[in-house]
């Protein structure tokens, strides 16, 4: 039996693994990528003979990755999917069992503790044409560039409200891309916002400097940077050929006439959603915090969840950046080691707590300044032919009809049962936010009142053979 199983090898997962392993316990880390680092530190394939990528502006990343990869008590299982959490039968015990799929098939991993450090995914936004080839998330465009050194297209439009757009634009320009326009839904920070951001500066000068460097590069290349502008549609036949952009008011409501900008790639960056499907399936309590990403996994000061034996760290607790995830992983790792019988030093606990507090000041500023307007974004999907659920091809008009004909439907899960939105391969990761916001608008209720989709095993699609393999017993 493994002492600790971790799902996710990003900053949080790596930091926690090191704390627990250095306390003398065995650790298994499961990750879907080919190498450690998570999305933020995505690296080129090992076959290229290059150990590290570009981690700017995080000077601590290289050391963290090297310590993680070189530690003798940490076993890493890459290109593997954790698709469910089970518990022993009462007559057997109360241990945790993680269902994992890899190239070798399915297996059950028995563990004394489980850490969910599953990161986040780009916030999807539905609008006419958003399913066209060439419409991508900012994270997907960045991943291609980081891991494969590939440009997603020749002429790009970047649209959204998150500062990742500026960083991505600079990276694309460095790689020789042509950016037609960057459309930012919000305006420049107001004086009150800049004053409020001052507490976040100490310890984060490199992050602010990197953002300033990116903005200078954008301006130097003459890229059009439009403020108070959103994407209202994508056009094309078999692939994207143009993007409709429109000015918005302070509430992000479109005004005036839309204009068409030629592009073969549209990169969307409105923010991120925590990957909480495994936590939901495991029975962890969640709570709503829109600016921090939506539905977050609840936890105590030691990052224990409401489910016995399960801890959480990183983006599932709130979208807060790599440094915060690193700090949370350290705090959670120390708490897990203590729960297993170790006695972490007071100095390490104090250091981790200070890291957490410092990172928290920065993340709260970013969350407040760049929170998405979910109601306005959901309104972009109103045209009745707009696809809401791309897996099941549920259109906006179908959802409207379901809500009109069933006034008792008040939740996203109820709508899911009636019109199949959220029943496809992605299990609602692409449509939950839109469906919930549309229900809230129809019922004149806050978005959180619409609830969330339930998560069941498997939380991600895996071959049926992996189920059969689980019968071979736990490891």
UniProtKB/TrEMBL annotation:
InterPro entries: BFD-like_2Fe2S-bd_dom_sf, FAD/NAD-bd_sf, FAD/NAD-binding_dom, Metab_Enz_Cyan_OpOx_G3PDH, Opine_Oxase_asu/HCN_bsu. It comes from the Bacteria. The keyword Oxidoreductase applies. This is NADPH-dependent 2,4-dienoyl-CoA reductase/sulfur reductase-like enzyme. The lineage of its organism: Bacteria, Pseudomonadati, Pseudomonadota, Alphaproteobacteria, Hyphomicrobiales. Keywords: Oxidoreductase. Residues 3-329 form the FAD/NAD(P)-binding domain. It comes from Aquamicrobium terrae. It holds the Pfam family Pyr_redox_2.
